[in-house]
Structure formats: C-alpha cells, structure tokens
C-alpha cells in the first residue's frame, strides 16, 4: 500500500473544499510523483468544481498548474531525476503510440487523460503523471509564479507557433483575465501590434503596461467600427458570449478568429462574413510538449511571468470565492501548506 496523499477535495458541485486523504496505489512504471509546492487556480478548476462541463467526478481534487519536485520515479521514466523541479499542466497522460502522438501532437491524443478529470490533481501534497508531461522548469523562472504558464501560458502561446504568427502582424486579444494578460505579454515580446478588448476600460493603464498598444471597449460599437478590416488575428480568451459578428468585422482579409476560451454558447456567425474576406474560425487546446518547452524558454528570455495573487492552500475556499467573484488579478496561486 502506498503512502496516503493529503489533499483538498469537494464532495459535490460547488461544495466547500475539505481535507481529504486517498491511497494513490502503486506508482506506474512510466509515472513520476511530484511533491506539490505551488498550484495555480484556473477558471477550468472553477468549471470542474461546479460541474459546468458535466465531466466532474467527486470527491474532486482540482489543480492543474502544478510546480513541484520529483520525489519518485517508475522504472521506465527517462530524462528526469529525483529532486528535479518540474511543472504539470492540464494533461497528465497520452497513449504515446497513436498517429497524433507519433507526430508530436500528444495534446490531441484521443486517449489523453486530464490531470483533474477522472484523477486527483494538484490541490494536494503530491500528484502523479506520465513522465513526458512533467516538464523541467528553467532555472530563471520562479517556482512561486510559474504554475499558470503550464495552462494559461501555453494556451495563448501555442497559437503563435501553430499559425506562424509574424512580428509584423496586428493581433487583438478579447478578454483580459488569467489567459488574456499573458497573451498581451507574449504578443508584445513577439513583436506584434497588440489591441486589448475588454469590458473594463478603466484598466487601460494596466493593460498597456502588460503590452497592449491600445485598449478598446468590447461593447463600444464605434471603437469596433474604427478597427474594421485591420486585424490579422483575434484571440478570444473569454468564456462569455459576445457579438462575434462585430469581432469578425475587425479582421482583415485572411484574418483568423481563434478561440482558446471555453465559450459554452454556440457561435452565431454569418457565412458571408467569412467567405467574402476568406476568413477563418478556429480553436486550440493548450499545446504540444515541445511547444511548452519553447514557451518556457521564451518566457525566460523575455522575463515574462503571470501576475499572481497567493493564498495558502488551506485557504482554498477563500481563493475559489475570490476567483468566482471576478476579482482575481490576474491569476491565483495556492502555496502548499500541509
């Protein structure tokens, strides 16, 4: 029998988090066990806690932006050592033999296992994953603030590589929260002309400091009209339903409306608005393992880190209430204090 793992778990949808202990069973040959030091809190944790997607199983231990040290390794683990500092994001396992995995698209594997779907995540003292998804953290990146890079960071960085975004391009970011504020930082360092769309224009000074060249009210029809036909890429990081036809009109010919935020309502878009300018609509989940490593190197080189608020993990209920209220600026990190 393995040593029990202490965690914080919810017994049902939106129920308070309480102390919880579970037996993880024998460590698999291809797994590592990570002692959690810090764990970011993502809106996806909130969605899973509330069973917004209908995929949650209880007791639920969320947490998929983990920073910690390897404390155990299976016999098939390669390239990692005990005591090594690593990060773990949304995915904890992929099959490693399907056509997607064999071409490096491990995140598109039909048999991927999410860190907090059907398994216990990082609101715990230890967490396990397949060794390939435990990504070494570059020395210059701080443990206390790097957790959100493994979900929010890779989610907004991946499209830059996936679509070969050039530094001469004009890019808009819709929704400046946990994902959006990192998108501004990466795009500015990438060399793009950056427009931030937000419902809180009073934050304009903060958003410009993060990298935006201009800030536009997402419900300001006149400002939106002034941008008609000007953007090459529009990255949607919000989960709110907005006027997608209006946003589509801001795109230049061959422009792309790209979703990384989990908007639950079906998109209502005019076909002629796409056809006439040969525009595209797309979406993406996180990114390749190789892209995560590129993202971390880019973050180290350009001194990019998320803006975070810290809570002890024992105050997880307070942290989730803070996130749910929309007051987080801009990402919450739980510090393990078992």
Structural write-up:
The chain is an alpha/beta fold and 338 residues long. It folds into two domains: 5-141 and 305-335, Medium-chain alcohol dehydrogenases, catalytic domain (Quinone Oxidoreductase, Chain A, domain 1, Alpha-Beta Complex), CATH 3.90.180; 154-283, Rossmann fold, CATH 3.40.50.720. The chain has eleven helices and 17 strands. It has helices at 43-49, 99-102, 143-146, 152-162, 178-190, 204-210, 221-226, 244-249, 271-275, 289-302, 316-324, and strands spanning 5-10, 17-22, 31-41, 66-73, 85-88, 91-93, 113-114, 126-130, 135-136, 170-174, 193-198, 214-217, 231-236, 251-259, 280-283, 308-312, 331-335. The strands form four sheets. Strands 3, 4, 5, 8, 9, 16 and 17 form a seven-stranded mixed β-sheet that branches. A six-stranded parallel β-sheet has the order 12-11-10-13-14-15. The protein is globular, with a radius of gyration of 20 Å. It starts with a strand and ends with a strand. The relative contact order is 0.15. The mean pLDDT is 96.
Instruction: Using the 3D structure, state the CATH architecture of the largest domain.
Output: Alpha-Beta Complex
CATH topology of the largest domain: Quinone Oxidoreductase, Chain A, domain 1
N→C terminal distance: 21 Å
Instruction: Give the domain tally.
Output: 2
Query: What's the total number of strands?
Result: 17
Sequence of secondary-structure elements: EEEHEEEHEEEHHEHEHEHEHEHEHEHE
- Described by its quaternary structure, the protein is single chain
**Percent of residues in helices:** 25-40%
């Amino acid at each position: 029998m393995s040593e029990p793992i202490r965690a914080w778990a919810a017994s049902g949808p939106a129920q308070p988090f309480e102390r919880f202990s579970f037996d993880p069973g024998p460590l698999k040959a291809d797994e590592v066990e990570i002692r959690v030091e810090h764990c970011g809190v993502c809106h996806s944790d909130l969605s899973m806690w509330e069973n917004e997607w209908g995929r949650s199983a209880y007791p639920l231990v969320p947490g998929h932006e983990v920073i910690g040290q390897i404390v155990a390794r299976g016999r098939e683990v390669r390239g990692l050592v005990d005591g090594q500092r690593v990060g773990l994001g949304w995915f904890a396992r992929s099959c490693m033999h399907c056509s997607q995995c064999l071409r490096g698209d491990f995140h598109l594997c039909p048999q991927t296992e999410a860190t907090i779907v059907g398994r216990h995540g990082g609101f715990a003292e230890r967490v396990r994953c397949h060794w390939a998804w435990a990504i070494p953290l570059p020395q210059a990146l701080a443990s206390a603030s790097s957790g959100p890079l493994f979900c929010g960071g890779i989610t907004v960085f991946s499209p830059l590589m996936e679509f070969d975004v050039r530094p001469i391009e004009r890019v808009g970011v819709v929704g400046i929260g946990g994902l959006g504020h990192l998108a501004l930082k990466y795009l500015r360092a990438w060399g793009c002309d950056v427009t931030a769309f937000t419902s809180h224009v009073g934050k304009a000074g903060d958003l410009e400091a993060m990298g935006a060249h201009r800030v536009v009210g997402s419900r300001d029809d006149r400002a939106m009209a002034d941008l008609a036909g000007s953007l090459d890429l529009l990255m949607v990081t919000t989960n709110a339903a907005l006027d997608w036809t209006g946003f589509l009109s801001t795109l230049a010919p061959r422009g792309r409306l790209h979703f990384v935020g989990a908007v639950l309502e079906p998109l209502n878009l005019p076909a002629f608005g796409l056809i006439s300018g040969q525009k595209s609509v797309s979406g993406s989940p996180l990114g390749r393992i190789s892209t995560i490593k590129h993202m971390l190197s880019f973050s180290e080189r350009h001194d990019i880190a998320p803006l975070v608020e810290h809570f002890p993990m024992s105050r997880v209920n307070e942290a989730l209430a803070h996130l749910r209220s929309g007051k987080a600026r801009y990402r919450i990190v739980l510090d393990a204090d078992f």
